[in-house]
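Hi R.,

Here's the chain you asked about this morning:
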Amino acid sequence: MTRFVFLADTHLGACPMGYQQQPGRPDRLADRLAALRRSIAEQGGADFIVHGGDLVDAVSEENLRAAVAEWARLSMPVRLCLGNHDLTDPDAINRWRTLAPDFFPGIRPEYTIATPDCAIHIVPNHWCERPYFWKDLQRAWFSDDQRAWLRAELRTRPDLPHILVTHSPVFGLPPEQTGFAAPYHAPEETFTRTVVGLSAEYPHVRCVLGAHNHLNSRVERNGVQYVTVSSFVETPYEAKWLEVQPHRLTMRTVRWAGESAADPYLPDHAYAQGRPMDRAFDLILR
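And here is the predicted structure, written out as tokens:
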């Protein structure tokens, strides 16, 4: 069995956070990680953590060195899918490779985590015309090179379930979750078509994990689970726990990081935590 934690949007170095759904405290990340370490131990341990992006709020030597020091406290592998805030420097990729290489198992930001039970493909989406850089545009897309790389990886081990991790959500939050008139925080339709098309082309893709919107969501299309996770440093400090067993894939949302009753919470943004159906799934694999 493979067990891992999926979390995102820690925005280390933000003071304060810009976009948020619930009050965020990136300055208290050390406390959250200490609680996470205890919680993982109580759950019987995990094989690794996948960070879905925006690990830092902006790329700088100070933030990257602080990130290495903070996440090393967990004493377990932490793998990163770069988010837009992780790409605020035109030379961001080289700065990550130089200052924080342990977040990646190879030299490129796209890579596969291969386990006996599944294959997890990390593919950070682009945001503007210049790949691996973000300034202000929010146009999610994959390059031809990324799509070719991903197709090659998806052709390996089709007998196992495959999981795709990117930073952008694939779908907006449905009105049924938010009460709004239209889907909320949706990407451009071309990105949705790209990811859904790849999932249809390779039916052993069973789950797509995203972040960016600081919201828990789950949309199912043709047997594929499209999931996003809320910010790990926003009340109530949630993350995903995934288990892959032979013929079974499960996900649940857990308040890992020691929620305090004294921490502020915005009831009018309670949709960020999602409905019960948005917070878990139990998928039988055939």
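One quick note: Residues 29-42 form the longest helix (14 residues).

Cheers,
M.
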